[in-house]
# Entry
Amino acid sequence: MVIEKGTQSIADEVRTLVAIHRWMDQTPRSTKDFDFIANLDLIASEDEQQGIHEVLEKHGFGVVPANARWQFEKQVSVGRRVVLDFHAPAPVGERGDLRLGARRVKPQPSLGQKGIHGRMNPEAASAELYPFSFTYGGLKIVLPNPVTLTLMKLAAMRDRRAVSQSAELSAENRRQEDRQARKHAEDVCRVVAMMTREESETAVGVLGGLRQSLGFEVAAATFSEFFKADEDWGSRAVAGRWKREDFQIIQSTLAAWFS
# Structure
């Protein structure tokens, strides 16, 4: 959140990799989707699941049938809806209190039509390390570390870009997927740009726990294909949104992580 204080914003008092006042586009990106990373112990806990179930029902969120129990939605007005996606890292080793589907992590035993599942997301590994938290309106908000967020955004960009190249889609649908891919490419840059000095230091520890994971390997390959060189698609997609020297800082940070 950027709060004006005279001619300076509070955001500028927090030292980040690229100060927000230097951004060429400071407009917050709106979205109807909220992504949550569910802790595996939470998914396995019947008590915690009951609490989540009650909150979802209280606020009018229903299961999206095509993505049962990991995606919920609520119609807020005509033509407007809010979507909640629950992700989960892949369990390490066998657990008797969890079941694995093709793409989902589920509680064992089954809770039937209660609670949530987690859409298995290799990029969510190490999300619990060095999170950033703050309180807003009496509610504690916890955000994953920048490395985990970057992995997730690189994956989203890569997937949308691949779909946008499909000859089976109409021209309009390809354009729509391309726009989404470009938004995720910009998100990659914003996550890195907003990294604080403390987060930059703790990123070393996060990377140490990730380097042998599948999610990291895929992210490294995605960086190499889309952002490593100025002529790569990702670099060109965001070129007009950053000052040259600031994009070079972002690009070099990604290279230090993934090269």
